[in-house]
Amino acid sequence: MASAARRPGRRRRGGLLLPLLCALLLLGPAGAAHIKKAEAAAPGEALRYLHSAELGEALRALAAAAPPGLARLFSIGQSVEGRPLWVLRLTAGLGPERDGEEPGGGEALPGRPQVKLVGNMHGDEPLARPLLLRLAQELVRGWAGGEERIGRLLNTTDIYLLPSLNPDGFERAREGDCGGGAEGGRENSHGRDLNRSFPDQFGVAEPDLEPVPEVQALIAWMRRNKFLLSGNLHGGSVVASYPYDDSPTHKPTGVYSKSADDEVFKYLAKAYASHHPIMRTGKPNCPGEEGETFQDGITNGAQWYDVEELTSKPVVMITEERTAK
Ligand SMILES: [Zn+2]
């Protein structure tokens, strides 16, 4: 696949999407003050990498402490080594949990768009773990504190945060090791790259999903829901990458592969990038990729490089700073 043309592990497709993060970034002075206060109250609270059991505990505690009807924690499945794939759902007006409820955190709410953010698909790209936990904490705190914009967000958006799709890889990863590969924690415990394991919209062969229960769980969850927008947060180049990631020719790079929602995706990607102090420069100057530039800090995925897979729904992907556990 195209990424093989690049140095594996160096170029890590990623992303985070973002209507949600944009909303937070756009909170304005009041929101910024609120965030500063939270940091002062609990320095570094969510800004370290928690082991998977700790992350589960932190999510459980947050869901339990949230005001009634605001949060629901559930797992969409398990990793190869049996770790839960936690999702924290946040929106106003959730009903009580029912015994025997299908995994998925309950029914969709009429007229409320579902948005999901997925992180740590590559186990050694862990940025989303603390970031999504911190985001969840801010949303709960803002709601409980009567913050007007967060209230509006949670009254109008059904938010699902999945901080780690590859908890096994994360546990294998080592801080400072940016080499990638199965040993470094990029792949799952069957040695499979989750970000290269989805069906390909331009291909004919059905991928073998047996070794990737994490991907199976994500696909099944997506089929049970109607996510309007999604984002996927990685570590690597600092850019907002939007669909599609591949083209019919699978030319390694340079093919702009347009989705039907191209204008919307460009708008969203630009909105995110323009609020990121490094991304918006278009010159992230990442070690080893010093010459790499992105106009406005965004790129079409296939134009950047082709990846033969598709997460079956359009997503905007935003790659954040490279990090290591
Ligand atoms: Zn990645």
UniProtKB/TrEMBL annotation:
<keyword id="KW-0479">Metal-binding</keyword>
<dbReference type="InterPro" id="IPR050753">
    <property type="entry name" value="Peptidase_M14_domain"/>
</dbReference>
<dbReference type="GO" id="GO:0005615">
    <property type="term" value="C:extracellular space"/>
</dbReference>
<feature type="signal peptide">
    <location>
        <begin position="1"/>
        <end position="32"/>
    </location>
</feature>
<keyword id="KW-0121">Carboxypeptidase</keyword>
<comment type="similarity">
    <text>Belongs to the peptidase M14 family.</text>
</comment>
<keyword id="KW-0378">Hydrolase</keyword>
<dbReference type="GO" id="GO:0006518">
    <property type="term" value="P:peptide metabolic process"/>
</dbReference>
<dbReference type="Pfam" id="PF00246">
    <property type="entry name" value="Peptidase_M14"/>
</dbReference>
<dbReference type="InterPro" id="IPR057247">
    <property type="entry name" value="CARBOXYPEPT_ZN_2"/>
</dbReference>
<dbReference type="GO" id="GO:0004181">
    <property type="term" value="F:metallocarboxypeptidase activity"/>
</dbReference>
<dbReference type="InterPro" id="IPR000834">
    <property type="entry name" value="Peptidase_M14"/>
</dbReference>
<dbReference type="GO" id="GO:0008270">
    <property type="term" value="F:zinc ion binding"/>
</dbReference>
<keyword id="KW-0645">Protease</keyword>
<keyword id="KW-0862">Zinc</keyword>
<feature type="domain" description="Peptidase M14">
    <location>
        <begin position="48"/>
        <end position="325"/>
    </location>
</feature>
<protein>
    <submittedName>
        <fullName>Carboxypeptidase d</fullName>
    </submittedName>
</protein>
<keyword id="KW-0732">Signal</keyword>
<dbReference type="InterPro" id="IPR057246">
    <property type="entry name" value="CARBOXYPEPT_ZN_1"/>
</dbReference>
<feature type="compositionally biased region" description="Basic and acidic residues">
    <location>
        <begin position="184"/>
        <end position="195"/>
    </location>
</feature>
<keyword id="KW-0482">Metalloprotease</keyword>
<feature type="region of interest" description="Disordered">
    <location>
        <begin position="177"/>
        <end position="197"/>
    </location>
</feature>
<dbReference type="GO" id="GO:0016485">
    <property type="term" value="P:protein processing"/>
</dbReference>
